[in-house]
Design brief:
The structure is a single chain. By secondary structure, this protein is α/β, with parallel strands linked by helices. The chain has a single domain, classed as TIM Barrel (Alpha-Beta Barrel), CATH 3.20.20. The chain has helices at about 50-60, 80-90, 105-115, 130-135, 140-150, 175-180, 210-220, 285-290, 295-305, 325, and strands spanning about 15-20, 65-70, 95-100, 120, 160-165, 185-190, 225, 235-240, 245-250, 265, 270-275, 285. A hairpin with a 4-residue loop joins strand 10 (about 265) and strand 11. Bound molecules: S-adenosylmethionine (SAM) and iron/sulfur cluster. S-adenosylmethionine (SAM) binds near residues 69 and 161.
Length: about 325
């Protein structure tokens, strides 16, 4: 069924990213604003029941794909049962998860059995010291085990998300690219989105651009082959090392132009719909939800959020005010 959600700019919205918690067991340097994170009072976080309600109404409107994110989604109690209800009760076929990988070693199998199809693991370096410096936690081994466990239980595709961090992971890039040669793995390099003051240029001195990452890879592996993009690739441009089983993805929110293909809405852990990742607008769906609405009121709210999507981030080019841990990336 075609989605009924089309925005003012002709884009069909069929993808909802859902942050189920702002809490995380890592403290990645690029994820939280410098002044630190204010924890959300427990009652302000949507209950699973409420999230399921929003997703079930969204599905009626044409949302086909849901990605569970956070914070770290696997630290929220009851997440496996929640995913199982999404796939079995609501009947969503395409449920994916983004995780830092630290809990996957133990949870991969039950997540798979709950009906989770696809998994993205965030991993920015393959060196232990650097991993600790970026995440604040000495757990590279745990994450690597989590990736292996995901292979073992049959997640397909498995995507590794690498944020490009100047001074940290330039030297890891060829090794990450090499991981795609023998395994059907997608490694996706993501430009870092900065925090801070709107008057500063958006290109942060501690990030580097997608073009530079491609240059580093091509130095080691020769020219990359551009691939056709499938709807599952989202905003990523996909490339392949000649003869490789896996693929390399480039996500360039800072230097690129991917807004014309944007197909998504975001639901924050506190129950606001966010029409644009980089835009300031958050629409408080939680208050409506807690006032016993009927489905048509929730539908109207979701449609209004779709209509509030800007044509592009250039309409509101800005640095992020909130941490990704609340928005969900
Ligand atoms: N904790 C999970 C994880 O790390 O995968 C899910 C939440 S995390 C906020 C989702 C994604 O956002 C991760 O892939 C992370 O690398 C990315 N992210 C966080 N802060 C970012 C930033 N400033 N720029 C670009 N990507 C960022
Ligand atoms: Fe946690 Fe993910 Fe943010 Fe890292 S990127 S601090 S793992 S929410």
């Amino acid at each position: 069924m075609q989605s009924n959600l089309t925005d003012h700019h002709g884009r069909t919205i069929d993808y909802l990213r859902v942050s189920i918690t702002d809490l995380c067991n890592f403290r990645c340097i690029y994820c939280r604003p410098p002044e630190g994170v204010k924890l959300i009072p427990h009652d302000d976080i949507l209950r699973y029941e409420e999230i399921l309600k929003i997703i079930s109404v969204s599905k009626k409107l044409g949302i086909r794909k849901v990605r569970i994110t956070g914070g770290e989604p696997l630290v929220r109690r009851g997440v496996v049962n929640f995913i199982s209800r999404l796939t079995h009760e609501i009947g969503l076929e395409d449920v994916a998860l983004t995780t830092n990988g630290s809990k996957l070693d133990k949870m991969a199998r039950e997540l798979r059995e709950a009906g989770l199809k696809r998994i993205n693991v965030s991993l920015d370096t393959l060196r232990r010291d650097c991993f600790s410096a970026i995440t604040g936690v000495d757990d590279l081994t745990g994450v690597m085990k989590g990736i292996e466990a995901s292979f073992d239980v049959g997640f397909d595709p498995i995507k590794i998300n690498v944020v490009l961090l100047k001074g940290f992971n330039e030297i890891d890039i060829p090794e990450f690219a090499r991981m795609t040669v023998d395994r059907p793995l997608d490694v996706r390099f993501i430009e870092r989105m900065p925090f801070g003051n709107d008057t500063e240029p958006i290109n942060s001195p501690d990030s580097f651009g997608a073009a530079e990452a491609i240059g580093i890879i091509e130095k080691s592996f020769g020219s990359l082959i551009p691939l056709d993009r499938s709807p599952l690739d989202g905003p990523a441009r996909m490339l392949r090392i000649k003869g490789a089983k896996g693929r390399i993805g480039i996500i360039d929110p800072v230097t690129g132009h991917f807004c014309p293909t944007c197909n998504r809405l975001r639901l924050t852990a506190r129950g606001s719909l966010r029409p644009c990742l980089l835009g300031p607008l958050e629409m408080d769906l939680r208050s409506l939800l807690r006032a016993n609405p009927d489905d048509s009121q929730i539908e109207a709210f979701i449609k209004a959020a779709v209509m509030a999507k800007p044509a592009s981030r250039y309409a509101n080019l800005r640095r992020m005010e909130t941490g990704m841990n609340t928005i969900g990336g």
